[in-house]
Design brief:
Blueprint (H helix, E strand, L loop, with lengths): L10 E7 L8 E7 L17 H14 L2 E7 L1 H7 L1 H15 L6 E5 L11 E4 L7 H22 L7 H4 L5 H10 L21
Parallel strand pairs: 1-4, 4-5
Antiparallel strand pairs: 1-2, 2-3
Helix pairs in contact: 1-4, 2-3
């Protein structure tokens, strides 16, 4: 079972999903869990199957003291770059919380200060602390739902399966059908970028 970072202060865990995708938003979540929260299944969202992720999504939504989820969409990603967009998404998720935490813990190694609240970046934090793991699950499940929704609009890219990640199938579809409004124009969508007509 994962640990709490500090039970004496209010800590929000933050994480993002979709940073490496060619299409769709980068999505972040921030979660404050009650100190009595326990769940043996809770872990980094990447290690969980769909059934467990969906179960935990509902559990976190029901039992979190407060949580926030935010998307940063393609235009902003292209304008400010994916790292800044990922941090912006986490800031926006924190803004949605019902109150500010005393401390923020973030998965990974890059973050920018949010409202002068102390923070710590923790590499592989989603496999160490419950609030970051909870944030990773909300970020992934909310983003996956969005990608499944836009799949209906552009089924040729099979986003319901690849979720916008750079799979062979996704790149083949880009080569065949071109780019959509959901693609990140600043990303290298194909090995030979010159062949894409924006």
């Amino acid at each position: 079972m994962l640990n709490f970072y500090n039970t004496k202060i209010t800590v929000a865990g933050a994480d993002e999903a979709g940073r490496g995708c060619l299409a769709g938003p980068v999505t972040a979540a921030a979660v404050i869990l009650p100190i009595e929260f326990k769940n043996a299944v809770l872990n980094d969202s990447k290690t969980l199957n769909l059934k467990n992720r969906n179960f935990l999504k509902s559990l976190i939504e029901d039992e979190a003291i407060t949580y926030g989820v935010a998307h940063v969409f393609m235009k902003e990603i292209d304008e400010i770059n994916i790292l800044n967009a990922s941090i912006l998404a986490m800031h926006r998720a924190l803004q949605v919380l019902k109150f500010d935490p005393d401390h923020i813990i973030v998965d990974g190694n890059r973050f920018k200060p949010y409202q002068k609240i102390p923070h710590e970046c923790i590499i592989k934090g989603d496999g160490k602390y419950m609030s970051i793991a909870a944030a990773s699950i909300l970020a992934k499940t909310y983003r996956d739902e969005f990608m499944e929704k836009i799949h209906e609009e552009f089924p040729d890219y099979n986003w319901k399966k690849n979720k916008g990640y750079p799979t062979k199938e996704h790149r083949a579809a880009i080569k065949k059908y071109g780019v959509t409004k959901y693609h990140r124009k600043s990303f290298k969508l194909l090995p030979d970028q010159l062949k894409i007509d924006f």
